Amino acid sequence: MKRSVKIQNNPLFRTPYLFSVVFLSTFSAFAEDWPQFRGPNQNGISSETGWNTDWASSEPTIAWRARLGAGYSSFSVSDGKVYTMGHVDGTDVLYCFDAKTGDEVWRYEYNA
Questions:
Q1: 14-23 pLDDT, tens per residue?
Q2: So where are the chain's domains?
Q3: Domain 11-39+59-111 has what CATH class?
């Protein structure tokens, strides 16, 4: 039995873009690297202090945005760079962004 997924109308494929906007908006508060899924200690907990946890009363400012295409990749942050992946028009793309400016440093594309 062949299965297909309707990508354009599937809300799950909009999630990576929304997640990236929210996640990337918090970089100015983080000083430590986040080099792997769930952080430096693989527990999803940051040791940083002094940042806003009450987004209901004071939403974080969006520092920058990036279109990544579809996908479920996590983000890694190291040495002022943000690394993640996306899928655009049948091609997987590995991205590297400057964490402060959001400028694309490089990308690597390959057929998937």
A1: 445 444 544 5
A2: 11-39+59-111
A3: mainly beta
